[in-house]
Write a structure and sequence with these properties.
The protein has about 300 residues and is an alpha+beta fold. The protein contains five helices and 16 strands.
């Protein structure tokens, strides 16, 4: 007996499996020393709408966009954060807040959906080179932090990367300064100190203080950002990301930046320069939202969508 509906479902599963498998296994396969070979891992890495790109305020289109709304970003997590050296980056999975939900964003050019924070990770250079992935106004900076969010209408990040509205990433750039590190918000300082325990690949460390996701943004002007349609910056390079690159650059102490350079990759080599080369902008539009009107925040009483 023939069941057309089942056949259609089966064909869809076969189509999605390569992308899901690629996403889960990419930490083993790709290498920052040969990013030109990533297209052999995933053909999307050689496709259109790739990231990172060079962003110029002069060429970006100023637009009166809605602000990003930050839901429970400034509430404490309900658990301590465990930071891990994956061999390719330093990252942590974002836990729920004390209110039982994860931080999320909406607004800007995002559809009428909510994007839940999944993980935070970093890209950096070496003593000889800058390490941000995006270039901003002709400058490459020392460090770039990504806060990856999944559209909540998809159950997992692996599922979300198969849809054009699946992911949004907030990118924060950092510039090294010769200043006493007491200017940090506690969240950033805790993460930088954790690096001293993450020298070897696959090592992990649980921070001692309870954090909030908003603490990682410090006093950043959250209303000033550039947004464009791009991709993941590691295989499978799925072109499903609405990027939000903040226009304000945060400081990192000259005492803390070298802590990233002391880490080791899966082969025991220095884990440095873990940034993908710039990609062509093609015909994509880059929009710039400046902090006018004033930034809006989402408060607990507004969470009627839950």
């Amino acid at each position: 007996m023939h069941f057309p509906a089942f056949d259609e479902f089966y064909q869809r599963i076969l189509f999605l499996l390569p992308f899901a498998a690629n996403f889960r296994s990419n930490e083993i396969e790709f290498d920052y020393q040969s990013p030109e070979r990533w297209r052999d891992i995933s053909r999307q890495c050689g496709g259109l709408n790739q990231s990172p790109i060079a962003i110029s305020r002069r060429k970006a289109i100023p637009l009166s966009l809605p602000p990003l709304d930050f839901g429970v970003y400034d509430e404490y997590f309900d658990d301590l954060v465990t930071v891990k050296n994956t061999g390719h980056t330093v990252e942590f999975k974002v836990p729920s807040t004390v209110y039982g939900i994860k931080p999320y964003v909406t607004g800007s050019l995002l559809p009428l959906d909510f994007y839940e924070a999944e993980n935070v990770h970093f890209h950096w250079g070496s003593p000889q080179s800058k390490g941000s992935e995006h270039m901003l106004n002709g400058h490459r900076y020392d460090l770039e932090m990504h806060i990856v969010h999944r559209n909540t209408k998809y159950l997992t990040l692996e599922d979300a990367i198969n849809y054009t509205d699946g992911v949004t990433v907030l990118a924060v750039l950092f510039k090294v300064v010769r200043t006493d590190p007491t200017f940090y918000q506690p969240g950033l300082k805790e993460l930088y100190n954790s690096l001293l325990h993450l020298g070897n690949s696959n090592s992990s460390y649980t921070v001692r203080e309870r954090l909030s996701l908003g603490a990682l943004l410090g006093n950043l002007d959250r209303g000033n950002f550039y947004t464009y349609k791009g991709s993941l910056t590691t295989p499978p390079c799925a072109p499903v990301v609405q990027w939000h690159v903040f226009g304000e650059v945060l400081p990192i102490s000259h005492q803390d930046l070298p802590k990233f350079w002391q880490l080791r990759d899966r082969r025991g080599r220095p884990l440095v320069n873990n940034s993908r080369p710039l990609q062509a902008q093609e015909n994509r539009l880059i929009f710039h939202r400046q902090p006018h009107p004033p930034l809006q925040r989402v408060h607990l009483q507004d969470l009627i969508w839950l």
